[in-house]
Amino acid sequence: MRGRWIANAVALVVALLTAFPLYWMALSALKPAGEIQSLDVRPWTAHPTLENFVRVLTGEGFARYLLNSALVALAVVVLSALIAFLAAVAVTRFNFRFRTTVLIMFLIAQMVPVEALTIPLFFVVRDLQLLNTLGALVLVQLAFSLPFAIWMMRGFVAAVPEALEEAAMIDGAGRATVLWRILFPLVAPGLVATSVFSFITAWNDFIFARTFIISAKDNQTLPSALLVFFKPDENDWGGIMAASTLMTIPVLIFFVVVQRRLVSGLGGAVKS
Amino acid sequence: MYLLPTAAVLGPMFGYPLYMLGLLSVFDYRQAQVSGGEPTRFLGFGNYARLLSDERFWSVLVQTVVFAAALVLATLVVGAALAIVMDKASPWARTTLSLAALGAWAAPAITGSTVWMFLFDADLGLVNQVLGLDGYNWFYDKWVTFGVVGATVVWHSFPFVMVTLYAGMKAIPGEVLEAAALDGASAVGTFWRVTMPMLRPLVTIVVIQSIIWDFKIFTQIYVMTNGGGIAGQNTVLNVYAYQTAFGSSEYGLGAAIGVVMALILLAVTLVYIRALYRTGEKL
User: Which of B6, B13, B241 sits opposite A140 (nearest CB)?
Assistant: First the structure.
């Protein structure tokens, strides 16, 4: 069939083009300094080296920033999973007066321009005396990942038949037991998928780190660290690409892990 | 009661700032007021009046809308075309394409920006080497810059459209398409008369989601044009609000821009919710 051949060819070409920037990032990170500065650019390297990675990880506090980013992301993931689970149970299992209003608010919350909100948030964080702390990042990112997490968890909780909980209640289980021993394990896969989204939001955050961490160098996270390698006169592209690679790898791994759930999860977030 | 922790986080970190955003926007709030040197002064709609009479605000608003519209259109065309390609291609080609797309989707906005900047670097960038443009600066002309930034954004956002639409196409029952074929419909006719109408709700959701994302574009512009380009020529609303507040310490005015943005997005969101209701969803 000719149509199929054309489709295959297009798919392949687009796949190459799409993957190319990522390939280029990893390749440049592995190139020795001489090759990066050479005006004769080649799409391969004969002398792969880890010198860029070593320079990045040992200098300019990058390892510290990596750890900070991981800590913040981890805290956000754990907290948002627990809180979103409870909230999702509330909006799916109980009928209360403002249920629909609450749900619409979660939806609207996802549309709010986050960057504009950093203006008042800056003062809130300042008044809480949290400027320059990682705690500020955790709190703020938690707030911004929750609406989507709840919206997504809703679908997973709703998918568990209510009869299961009723049966447990009849057998004499209390509310807490039903919640943590029965419902929680059943929605665990959904929780994992939701957590990945929270992780990515937190890990990719640029603006909060840029705004709330002003002077405390030790509390910077990765995105700002990346900008350190931009120099007014000469950018250290090898360093930038190595740092970018290090920042991309964890997200890439997570994406591959959840790729099957991605579509159904988003579908669930949008549809169910 | 289960909503208590949610309320505890969202109240102070989301609801209150939103309220404060509105509040700040009606006050004269600048560096002097932040440090307590001068009392805050109530301006009413003063900040808004200043914005509406400011030529720069209008030009930024217009270029934000134009840029976002171009991004939405490009993302949708690329995403939809590739969804069709995925549907027609063999499994191995489909897997290859979706893996590559997954990579672009997963890459953080900021690392995507740095890589594209490197590719388009004036001296050491691959693009100039291949095209033989020695030392051509892609970040000098306003619209060329928007083009490069736009390409980065589309690269990052088309996978969502592609994957979602492809999933939607797969969800159409085979019998429907067979019935159309039996009735003598051509492939093209089936696509426009059967597939598209059935995908309508999904397309609406994807369109509106894209509008919301592209209208709020921040990181790519901020990083790639170093905060808005030469003399701020590549500023979009979100960057403008941020720079006004934190760059020029005009917090009140910045907040007013934020409110304008929020209102525009709210309008889009309401359309979104209506679209959700139309597809027969129950909240």
Answer: B13
